[in-house]
Design brief:
The chain has helices at 2-20, 47-52, 54-73, 76-85, 91-100, 105-116, 137-155, 174-184, 200-213, 225-235, 242-249; strands at residues 121-126, 132-136, 217-222, 238-241, 260-264. It is mostly helical. The protein is elongated, with a radius of gyration of 24 Å.
Length: 269
């Protein structure tokens, strides 16, 4: 249990810094089975070990061969696996993935050509490094739906609070007061961006008090338990992880209503 907790915390740390640096990459601490990827995990084996541990090397090659056969039977496995880690990919990304899951040049070439020929691959054009980037129709559809839902929320003029003069007396800076007015005015989607240490949690605490005086229930959602503790400690917002909230929502319990305000921590991730 402790090892799983460490792995999850490490993945969350990696993903936070990948996102902060604008990199379209994600680490997933879960097993392939938990990710619904029907490939067998391979041994971590380097050149030195391969020379002395022939039994381990033979098993490694068996797994690679069998994974290659699975990819030949269902090339969509490769596209699903890659887009779970990054929303777009290059030919080199695809080649690296297939090389990792095939046993030799012949199997690699067969799988590579088959995956490249899939009709749900979409060309996106060149990136800033002049590399051709690709995605899948499924990923583009998902992102389009997210954008559509965001536009719907922005257009809804709800969850506004009436003028709250108390903010003048709780020590908000002029910049924080502008941000306070923005996130508490009418509209169902607001974004708050600020560097660490600029007082976002304190500002959200003030907003929570205003929302609650208006009769709204405020709840926080984070990716990690540590982040939930931090958000709740800094703002007083009752916070839990997305996994915890989803557990109940999937069972049609503790569902959101028009009287809920949800604060999503590190929403870009």
């Amino acid at each position: 249990d402790l090892l799983i907790e460490w792995r999850q915390a490490w993945a969350e740390d990696c993903n936070r810094f990948l996102a902060l640096n604008g990199l379209d990459l994600r680490v997933d601490h879960r097993t392939l089975a938990e990710q619904a990827i029907p490939l067998e995990p391979q041994h971590k084996i380097g050149p030195a070990a391969s020379r002395v541990d022939l039994e381990r090397l033979a098993d490694h090659q068996r797994i690679a061969r069998e994974n290659g056969e699975r990819l030949l039977q269902d090339p969509q496995i490769a596209l699903k696996s890659i887009t779970q880690q990054q929303s777009t990919f290059t030919t080199a990304d695809l080649a690296r993935f297939i090389n990792r899951h095939t046993v030799d040049a012949q199997q690699f070439a067969a799988v590579f050509e088959l995956v490249k020929s899939q009709t749900n691959i979409v060309k996106l054009g060149l990136d800033d490094k002049q590399q051709e980037r690709f995605s899948t129709k499924e990923m583009l559809s998902l992102e389009s739906k997210m954008l559509e839902q965001a536009n719907i929320l922005v257009a809804k003029q709800q969850h506004a609070i009436t003028r709250d003069d108390s903010i003048k007396h709780i020590g908000l800076t002029s910049e924080q007061q502008v941000a306070f007015a923005h996130i508490t005015k009418a509209g169902d989607l607001k974004c708050l961006i600020g560097y660490a240490g600029t007082g976002k949690s304190y500002l959200l605490g003030a907003a929570r008090e205003a929302w609650e005086r208006q009769g709204f229930q405020v709840q926080g959602i984070t990716l990690s338990g540590k982040a939930a503790e931090s958000l709740e400690a800094g703002s007083g917002i009752n916070s839990r992880t997305l996994a915890s909230r989803s557990y109940y929502w999937d069972r049609r319990e503790q569902l959101l209503t028009s009287q809920d305000v949800v604060v999503v921590d590190e929403a870009g991730m």
